[in-house]
Amino acid sequence: MTRYRIPDWLLLTAICAFVFLWGLASIGLVGADEPRYAQVAREMLARHDWITPVLSGSPWLEKPPVYYWQAMIAYRLFGVSDWAARLPSAVDGFALVFAVYWFLRRFRPGYELDGALMLASAAGIIGYARAASMDLPLAAAFTVAMLAWYAWFESGNRGYLVAFYAFLAIAMLAKGPVAPALAVVIIAIFAGVERSAELAWKTIVRKTLWLPGILLFCALGLPWYVMVQLRNPQFFHEFIIEHNLARFSTNLYHHPEPFWYYVPVTLLGWVPWSVFVAAACVWAARRFRNRDADNLGAFLLIWIGVTVVFFSISQSKLPGYILPAIPPGILLLSQYVRARFGSKPRPAMTALHATLAGALVFSALMIPYLVLQHRIPWNITVIAPLILSVMIAAAVFVSLRKHGYPNLRFITLVPAVLAVGIAVRQDAPSLDAALSARPAAAALQKFDPHHLQLAVFLVSRETEFGLEFYRNQTFPRYERGEVPDGEHLVVAPEGHEPDVARSAGNRNVTYLGTFAPQKLEFFYVAARQ
Predict the structure, then answer these.
(1) Which residues on neighbouring strands pair with residue 436, listed in sequence order?
(2) Strands across the sheet with 453-456, in order?
(3) Tell me, what DSSP letter sits at residue 319?
(4) What are 160-209's pLDDT values in tens digits?
(5) Prior bond to 272 cis, omega within 30?
(6) DSSP secondary structure letters along 399-420
């Protein structure tokens, strides 16, 4: 009997579609950044301006344009929505997974499907592929660039060097000069530890600095920077000085974390593969000086190390910064599994991995408590989730002990996909109500059939930017004395009605209602007489 085998591309497409696209808008835009980036793209599209990012009608020069360009295209094709705002990252997630699949198939055949599926199911990739942000566009373009460079290093085909410079330019347009800076350091260190020592370093660096490639990088990466500077003379100071150099060297933007912050964050980004990725890093480090060892392991280890150390030195730390370290870790894991195919993991590693797989599902079932209450209710509520998680951990442990590394991909993919399904179907409604401005905007619309001007009073940045996107309005803030003359609505935290009335002066203020999940109150303020 002939067994039907699902083509790799079809399986990858199905998995990526599920983890990146399914329920993409089940939670509205959250935080300050998602709605802000989405609104910038909307305003650029409305102005037909592909050069200057604009927020609330004024230049907003903190980030480069790749995400905005992608979102503008998505808006043009599908209309403005939170789903369309997140689509660019999801598409970049697809591109990243298939690029890793192609690289492994071309240069390390036999384990390309393992590597691609492991990457698609890594928590860091899934999380940022479902977010309207610049982090995955950077990670995807940077990963393709570095894999293209290594493809050139191994094959000598300058077509790969062309791709390296092209995607490095795209990465610089995705989030700034951090991409070429990381690439230079990674390649320089890799060349420095090459087995031919000084000769190899000079040869690799000299051949990498290929004039046609440099010209291509400049032609693709620099025109936007030149044009935005010509139109906005403040661009260099705001973008380069404040949002790159000052963000790296100072705590100007109030994101302080300890030096070791990115070690646990990177491990979380590799979940559910973290145990074996850590083992793969140790394995690659031990082979580092072995002249017969595969150069790819050393290259990937340097890539991870440089990225983690670079961002650890930064005085401003956010989880998404470390995303470029996730793909090389998964690639290293695919090489580790390749070297051990046919064997079985040690019992201790198997137990840790199984525990992590079970904990992933348990965490998915407990997300509303963990995110909204910052605790786990150790009562009857956790019994069923705990039993299910223990059963999953036991199944993973038994399967790996019986079948070894050949079964690692499949048996781990099951809890990873299950966790995504639980998060989207079960957890999304409560998270949406508590974290996104979308349901608050919908509640407000019931009192506002004529879409009046909205003002805010002492609300968080997350609420302000979220409401700005969902209502497509710019809001004056009462606490700054910005009180509109005409009739308008006001959103304020619960308990601030007297403050709103005092700020409105002698005008009539009417309480309209509340949005309890976020403790917000709505008021109508009559026009000034």
Answers:
(1) 30
(2) 453-456, 488-493, 520-525, 509-515
(3) G
(4) 999 999 999 999 999 999 999 999 999 999 988 875 555 566 788 889 99
(5) yes
(6) HHHHH-GGGHHHHHHHHHHHHH
67 touches 174 (CB < 8 A) = yes
Positions in the chain short of pLDDT 50: 1-2
Of 140, 87, 122, the C-alpha closest to 265 is 122
Q: Are 437 and 469 in contact (CB under 8 A)?
A: yes
Q: What are the residue boundaries of the structural domains of the chain, listed by start?
A: 16-254, 347-435, 438-525
Distances (CA, A) of 361 to 283, 413, 415, 432: 28, 12, 6, 20
Return the amino acid letter for 161.
L
pTM of the model: 0.94
**Per-residue pLDDT at 175:** 92
User: What is the distance between the alpha carbons of residues 190 and 183, in angstroms, rounded to a whole number?
Assistant: 11
Strand, coil or helix: 5: coil
CA pair distance 279, 187, nearest whole angstrom:
24
Nearest to 456 by CA among 487, 486, 482: 482
User: What separation in angstroms does the CA of 181 have from each of 7, 67, 178, 188, 408?
Assistant: 38, 20, 5, 11, 35
Are 219 and 162 spatial neighbours (Cβ–Cβ below 8 Å)? no
- pLDDT tens per residue, range 240-299: 887 777 666 666 555 667 888 999 999 999 999 999 999 999 999 888 766 556 789 999
436 φ/ψ angles, rounded to the nearest 5 degrees: -100, 150
